[in-house]
Amino acid sequence: MTRVLSRALPEAALLAASAHRVVTPNERAARALGVEPCSLQGLATNILSEAGFAIASPLLAVRLFRQAAASLGEAPDLAVTMAATVRELFRTGADLEALVSSAPPRAARVARLAFAYRSALRAKRLVDDAECLRVAAGRVEGTQVLLVAGYPRLGEDEVAFLDAIAGPASRVHLPNTGEALFFENALVADSLEARGWMVERPEGARPFTGRYLAPAFAPVPPRAYRYANLEAEVRGALARLKVLLNKGMRPDQVALVARDDVAYGPMVMAIAWEYGLDIGAFYAVPLAATHVGAWLRLAMEVVNGAFPYETTARLLGHRLSERLSPEVWGQVRKGHPVGLDAWVGVCPELGLLAWPERASRAGWRHLLQQMLDGFDVSERAGRSPREVLALGKLHEGLDTLAQPGDETLSRHGFEAELVDLLSLLSVPAHPDAKGVALHTPLSLYGARYRHLMVLGMAEGHFPVRVENDPVLDFHERRALEALGCRLEGAASAARREALSFWALLQVATEGLELSYAELANGEALLPSPYLADLAAALADPPSVPACSPEESRPARLRGAYCDDPVLPFALHSHRVEWGREASPEYDHFDGVPGVPVDPATRRFSASQLVTIGQCPFKWFAQRLLRLADPEEVEGELSPGLRGTLFHRALELAVEGALPLLAPRAHVLSRLDEAFARAEVELQVQAVSAWTAQRDFHLKTLRAAVEAPGFVADGAAIVQVEGRFTGRAFGLNFIGYVDRIDRTDDGLVFVDYKTSSSPPKGAKDDEGKPKVDVQLPLYMEVAAPALFPGEPVAGAHYYSLTKGEVLKKAVPSPGDLERLTGKVKAHLEAGSYPVAPDVDEASCLYCDLALVCRSGPRLARKQMGGEENTNA
After folding, report:
1. Strand ranges inside 686-786, DSSP E
2. 406, 360 in Cβ contact below 8 A?
3. In 573-715, where do the E strands start and end?
4. What is the secondary structure of 250-319 as a DSSP string?
5. For residue 422, how many other CB atoms are within 10 A of its CB?
6. What is the overall mean pLDDT for the chain?
């Protein structure tokens, strides 16, 4: 009996009853024909297994590829970029030895690497997945009666394998209408006919129309829709899908398709959850993108960085290893531990990351397993089906990585292979998903669905752009044809994409919808040229009902519906935002709770007076609501930390020597020691690049002490960091004076500043931050409290950066009296509106922007709004 290449496919019922072994490209094609799944790749794998060969795992293949490259003097990492081209050579069955001797230099280099890699595989009785069909074809011991269906095209390796395994009466269904689209299939037909196959050629083949896809190629007339953006496209498709399901269509009768399912998958799954749809998304994500992979990468960063603070803290805060209590986290933020010993005191399990510089492969496997067990990663990963699969894949990969067990490997070598493992192995993104499936065109070859929805029909995305291979460009590939090596060229790549889309069109039996987004990921897109080929007129999508409470809620907000439990909260939030944005008055959502506070129960510092004088809400949030970031050692020398360092160094330089009659000489003699003590106390060593900065800051401080303005001639320092309390203008005060000098004219109060300009004050009558508070308060309250009865000669700010007096106090009791009167009014009325000074100086370094919501909206508050709230 003759083997036949036919374009006619028998009915599914006849297939199920025939003696042929039906071969299809995927399970869905087998289901469409009513037969058990069986593919050419599966047959080849079984034959190789019976012959004692195995398919090399991705991790082992990369390792052998690197070793082959190293044996040829190639850079292993660079050579890995040639892997795809090497595998293409395997599929074509190219004569590698001939290419090495006769091909152009670059092609010969690739062939030489392919030959070395194949030799390394055979030494371990392994086969690369790309040469599986070729190798199996040479080891077929008995033919089978096959019926091959569902393949839109056959590669040269598939043809060679079919010719070897297909026995008499075998049939292969391959579309071949005579159009240019099926050019490669015509070559397959000629090849099989030369091998003795009977070819049933199409009758009355249509002439080439100039288009790859004629309208007649689509069994179902397509409908094409355009959307403004990707989210709108997904929402539109899923809304129509929900309508179809509600009309009685079964989930297994409809499918979603995306050429790039990884790009569409997350959006599809998120909106499907909102719509209450069951969607199965089986696109693969690498282990590196799972929580298990991310945790492992963090652990490697911790080891390589010698347990730095930031990375180690992130590892301990990861969902797979979180174990520190809030109290311990508070201590960690204050201490910023660095190094293994410091961190083991916080979390003993981190001792499992004390990896040696070298160990055997089996030893590395054991160390990694100890680490996973010590952090209970398996138990924590068990909360997610995907993470369970990821952990299983990781263990499989580690078993491969650990062979041969006695081979010694450096830590960096082990980590490099671990990175390969995480990038090469993958798991389904949603392994527990069910219902309507999201597919790629490749996974639907030969399948049948009543309704098909194809997303992403945009130019450059479907079809993808044809681009040169970085190893062998199209010109070099054409030159290789003379040597019998037929690699894919530009035209054949375009036809392959078009044939893939043609095969997709055959899947739909009743309804076919094609759509694209005009804007996706910030990129403006044009419709796919395939839509023009199909003469599919683009239209705006049909209107669909709201498919989720979230979509219907905006309309309900404007009505009187009460059946949505979220609506009362949404209406409340809407009223709050409307009041913030549109009302001329401040309310209790804008710092005016209306709860009075007795001023006599509070104690104010100079900085508090400045804060409330610049923006009442800022003081309210900090002092009454107690909103503040967790206390943490600073990782860089901020202006605040620098100021604290300079203040503390000067305090230590004077400590124990009061009253100090020769202050300048004394401070200079002790400044180095005091600076060293201060940096230890404040943990300034944790600041990045502090070693390089230290001398500069010490010289700056020394220059400030040496400057004439640091202390007046004949003056004596009588107190540093003088703490005072007192009562004035109806308020209680507390504070510290940086330094108090005694001169012939009286006391002089000195406040150190590391800035080069005087500090901003409270708001004046025009809203400008010009009312100085600190110096007048020292003269009004601190002087009588610390040195009662002594005359006061003045007060000034001294810049430790410029080494000069910035500003001297100008006594103005009226300013303080008016400011304290406003403060008392704020407290008694419970009114602290968001009203910063007109220059917004108080906003410059404020970290409460997300709370106060300052911005243009404040300009819409009525003029004098602060006064209307008894401010």
Report:
1. 716-728, 731-743, 746-753, 762-763, 769-771
2. yes
3. 603-604
4. -GGGEEEEETTHHHHHHHHHHHHHHHT--EEE--EEEGGGSHHHHHHHHHHHHHHTTS-HHHHHHHHHST
5. 25
6. 88
Classify residue 57 by its DSSP letter.
P
Q: Identify which of 78, 62, 64, 80 has the alpha carbon closest to the alpha carbon of residue 119.
A: 64
Reduced to 3 states (helix: H, G, I; strand: E, B; else coil), residue 58 is helix
CB-based burial of residue 861 (10 Å sphere; 0-12 exposed, 13-18 middle, 19+ buried)?
Answer: buried
- Is 156 in contact with 91 (CB distance < 8 Å)? yes
Residue 165 phi/psi, 5-degree rounding, is -100, -25
Angle between helices 567-581 and 549-557 (to 10 degrees): 50
Q: Which amino acid is present at 63?
A: R
Distance between CA atoms of residues 255 and 450, nearest Å: 9
- Taking every pair of Cα atoms in the chain, the longest distance, rounded to a whole number of angstroms, is 126
Q: How far apart are CA 519 and CA 231, in angstroms?
A: 10
Taking each continuous run of H as one helix and of E as one strand, the counts in the chain are: 36, 28
Helix (H, G, I), strand (E, B) or coil at 423: helix
Summarised one tens digit per residue, pLDDT across range 61-103 is 999 999 999 999 988 877 788 899 999 999 999 899 999 998 9
* Cα distance from N-terminal residue to C-terminal residue, the chain: 102
Query: Strand pairing partners for 59?
Result: none
Q: What is the pLDDT of residues 118-172, one digit of tens each?
A: 999 999 999 999 999 999 999 998 899 999 998 999 999 999 999 999 999 888 9
Total count of residues recorded for the chain? 871
Whether the per-residue pLDDT at 307 is higher than 80: the answer is: yes
Beta strands in 579-693 (DSSP E): 603-604
Packing angle, helices 58-71 and 385-401, rounded to 10: 40
Q: Which pLDDT tens digit goes with each residue over 3-18?
A: 777 766 655 545 555 6
As beta bridge partners, residue 458 has 527
Q: DSSP letters along 132-190, please?
A: HHHHHHTT--S-B-EEE-S-S---HHHHHHHHHHB-TT-EEE----SSGGGHHHHHHHH
List C-alpha distances in Å: 264 to 269, 271, 427, 520, 817.
9, 11, 17, 10, 65
Q: With contact defined as beta carbons under 8 Å apart, do 55 and 121 qualify?
A: no
- Structure tokens belonging to residue 56: 């090399």
